[in-house]
From TrEMBL:
It comes from the Bacteria. This is Beta-lactamase-related domain-containing protein. Residues 81-392 form the Beta-lactamase-related domain. Pfam families: Beta-lactamase. SUPFAM superfamilies: beta-lactamase/transpeptidase-like (SSF56601), beta-Roll (SSF51120). InterPro entries: AmpC-like, Beta-lactam-related, Beta-lactam/transpept-like, Serralysin-like_metalloprot_C. It comes from Calothrix parasitica NIES-267.
């Protein structure tokens, strides 16, 4: 009989403000097998929890097989021709993946394994720097020690300012010492045998004899491998031990890193994968594994695999190898000048900042190998990449999107290894006011176990705080056109509304003219309401209530052409809040009890309408608003001209161009259909239902609402707007942000948080503001580039 799983959750209430920890409890009716029991847990609202702080007892969270296969396929498709093989690890609290693709040896076509070892190049520097910082903690070294403090004159005599260059400057690349590798590679161009020589560290220093320093000590920043050859010599001078022995005693053995070695200083049982490089530039990959790594020594001679490097990175950056004060000093960075690998650099550790997170990193490269070790402290996320070839691209660009999406999905696997197991998940405090929500976790039935019928799921109630703030009140604006209307013409009066924060169940508003019988001028029976219900008129025909369901609703009311000569009548229709409705209407209008609470846009409270018996009445000239433009039921092409216009597209696929003849400040309602809008300047554009496309030009300062459907917002097309366009309803996973003609990609964008909104910029120009979007939620899949 299969084990029976009993599943419970606690506590019932989770408070975001307090980051309450939820507990998922698993109890098996009998001990699990040695390999554990893999259960699938359905969790539709997993995004409500801070997955970086997940803690597990009695089991392990694992990625679903489908996601692992997706990552394997992405790795296979990413390798370029010059990279025979690649091993990658992505390690997170909510599932990890160790992948491999290609071969470890071209000659034997040996398949590469995830635990294979590679040369790791300059990641060696982080091991050396950690060793130095431990010696600083022990008082055996000081970061203020200079070269002449520890090294003999035979080394320091040929290094300018040796008496001023400090150990800290060596570790941070601010010493100004020239890079011996530049000289070595120059010689290798005519004598490749330099890479087969068994070099001594002192001989490597000799390469810069007579080479001018890059700058005075401490005056700038420049990556130089010579710095860590000197740092390695100082470690040996201070301890009396070989640098490899110090690293092994202090780091490798305590962390049980069984696949990490210092080449040429230690034996490497089983060796490591072969490295390849088109050394002769003849189109053929050369196996150059035989190169003697003494040429790179303390600056890049170590060998490791993805699992060991993940363990090292986590242990270092989570404070297991250094005291907090020492680690903070190590991570205190200076800007990396004119360097594509790092944004800033500390002591043997660099940093970069991607659109989604901040990373501590180090990169490495030797002959035929390249490596990356990245750690994101806010997400407790590690990315390790090792290849046995040459490539300018990081595989992370293709691997991270499916991984991010996979761990944020609504299912995950949990391997239970003990009879009682538990997952702790703190609720995420996102700082947003969302009201009460729920999150349900359900253990799905699966192979090798059964689920107790009345103990298979649990539901949490999630609130922002114990004192929930009220939801924001809707903001309502009212306009009308035309503002002059005559009875002897076939005229319609159109009242239109703009509503922000429209409730899901609609909004009752009240409009009043304070002119009794004013509505008798209109044929209310023929009124057409778009985005709302029928009018409910008050008894003296001065106003009405209406329930609206669309944020761009409108009412079209025909004017009655009677034979009564009334002259000129001015009627002012204005929005009224509940508190502004008169006592008479409070008792007379039947709908007042359910007129909603809202606030009125002070710039669009209402409109004054002038009604004539005939347009032949002589009157003082009054400025007239532009006549509105209406599309047809067919596909229209509308070119907007002038300013302050009101444009309504029809129900087909329309093209509306405000970029040529318009000077801005228009209100454009594209209507339903798959419409295309070419933007001008300072317009308010609403797409409506359908897959709409918006194209920014050089104007900008437009406010865009896509409406229902999968919309495309092309925020820059061959030129950048003068000011950012605002997008009010961008929906990730449905809508797309487009950039064309600028020759840039996702990594060239600046994506930053501004209060509750996200600013997207490129080339020092603001392109768009996304209202209500969290900057870190945007990924490359949200964009299209042309």
């Amino acid at each position: 009989m299969n084990p029976i799983i009993s599943f419970t959750t606690e506590p019932e209430l989770l408070i975001e403000e307090e980051e309450t920890v939820s507990l998922l409890n698993f109890n098996l009716s009998e001990p699990p097998p040695a390999t554990g029991i893999v259960v699938n847990i359905n969790a539709p609202n997993l995004s409500e929890f801070d997955l970086t702080k997940t803690q597990v007892e009695g089991g392990e969270i694992t990625l679903e097989p489908e996601l692992q296969q997706q990552l394997n396929d992405a790795l296979d498709g990413t390798r370029v021709e010059d990279v025979p093989g690649a091993a990658v690890a992505i390690v997170s609290p909510f599932g990890s993946w160790f992948g491999a693709s290609g071969v470890a040896n071209l000659e034997n076509n040996t398949p590469l394994q995830p635990d294979d070892r590679f040369q790791i190049g300059s990641i060696t520097k982080t091991f050396v720097a950690t060793t130095v910082m431990q010696l600083v903690e022990e008082g055996k070294l000081s970061l203020e020690d200079t070269l002449t403090t520890w090294l003999p004159e035979s080394i320091t005599a040929d290094i300018p300012s040796a008496e001023e260059i400090t150990l800290e400057q060596l570790l941070q690349h601010t010493s100004g010492v020239a890079d011996y590798v530049d000289v070595l590679f120059t010689q290798a161009a005519t004598n490749p045998g330099v890479f087969l020589t068994d070099w001594q560290p002192e001989e490597l220093i000799d390469f810069i004899d007579g080479v001018e320093p890059l700058f005075a000590p401490g005056e700038s920043w420049q990556y130089s491998n010579t710095n860590f050859i000197l740092a390695g010599l100082i470690v040996e001078a201070a301890t009396g031990n070989n640098i490899a022995d110090e690293i092994r005693t202090r780091i490798l053995e305590p962390l049980n890193l069984e696949n990490t070695f210092f080449a040429e200083e230690e034996e490497i049982p089983g060796g490591y994968v072969s490295g390849y490089w088109d050394f002769n530039q003849d189109g053929t990959l050369d196996n150059i594994t035989s190169a003697n790594l003494s040429w790179t020594w303390a600056t890049g001679a170590m060998v490791s695999n993805t699992e060991d490097l993940d363990t090292f990175a986590r242990s270092l950056f989570k404070g297991e190898l250094l005291e907090p004060e020492t680690l903070n000093k190590m991570l205190d960075t200076t800007p990396a000048i004119d360097n594509n690998n790092y944004s800033s650099y500390g002591l043997g550790v660099g940093t970069i900042e991607s659109p989604n997170r901040f990373w501590y990193i180090h990169r490495g490269q030797t002959l035929g190998y390249r490596s990356n070790m990245w750690y994101a402290p806010e997400d407790d996320l590690t990315y390790i990449e090792l290849i046995n070839g040459f490539s300018d691209d990081n595989l992370v660009r293709d691997l991270f999107p499916p991984f991010r999406q996979g761990i944020a999905d609504d299912n995950f696997n949990f391997t239970i290894t003990e009879q009682d197991a538990q997952i702790s998940l703190p609720v995420a405090n996102d700082g947003e006011i969302e009201g009460e929500e729920t999150a349900t976790f359900t253990v799905e039935a699966g192979e090798g176990y059964e689920v107790e019928s009345d103990a298979s799921s649990g539901t949490f109630t999630i609130v922002d705080s114990l004192l929930e703030p009220p939801a924001p009140l809707p903001n309502v604006a009212l306009g009308a056109f035309p503002n002059r209307i005559a009875e002897d013409e076939d005229n319609l009066l159109t009242l239109f509304f703009e509503i922000n924060d429209l409730p899901q169940d609609g909004l009752y508003v009240y409009i009043d003219s304070e002119t009794p019988q004013s509505l008798s001028q209109f044929d209310l029976n023929q009124a057409v309401v778009n985005g709302g219900e029928s009018l409910i008129v008050n008894p003296d025909l001065s106003g009405f209530a209406i329930k609206l369901f669309a944020d761009d609703a409108s009412i079209e009311i025909p004017l009655i052409a009677d034979e009564i000569e009334e002259g000129i009548i001015d009627i002012t229709y204005e929005l009224k809040t509940r508190d502004e409705i008169s006592e008479e209407d409070l008792t007379a209008i039947e709908t007042v009890d359910f007129v909603s609470d809202y606030i009125i846009n002070p710039q669009m409270v209402g409109e004054t309408i002038t009604v004539f018996d005939t347009f032949f009445v002589i009157e003082p000239e009054i400025p007239v608003k532009p006549e509105p433009i209406f599309g047809s039921l067919e596909a229209d092409i509308i070119e907007v001209s002038g300013s302050g216009g009101l444009i309504f597209g029809g129900d087909s696929d329309d093209l509306i161009d405000a970029s040529i003849s318009s000077t801005g400040s228009n209100r454009i309602y594209a209507g339903s259909g798959d419409d295309t809008a070419i933007l001008g300047i300072s317009d308010r554009v609403v797409g409506g239902e359908g897959a709409d496309k918006f194209f920014a030009t050089s104007g900008g300062d437009n406010i865009l609402t896509g409406g229902a459907g999968a919309d495309q917002f092309w925020i820059a097309t061959a030129e950048t707007p003068d000011s950012a366009n605002i997008i009010t309803d961008f929906t990730s996973g449905e809508d797309v942000l487009g950039i064309a003609g600028l020759g840039i990609g996702f990594d060239d964008l600046s994506i930053s948080q501004q209060d509750d909104n996200t600013l997207i910029a490129a080339n020092n120009s603001d392109l768009a503001i996304l209202e209500g979007i969290v900057a870190e939620s945007l990924i490359v899949d949200n964009f299209a580039f042309g």
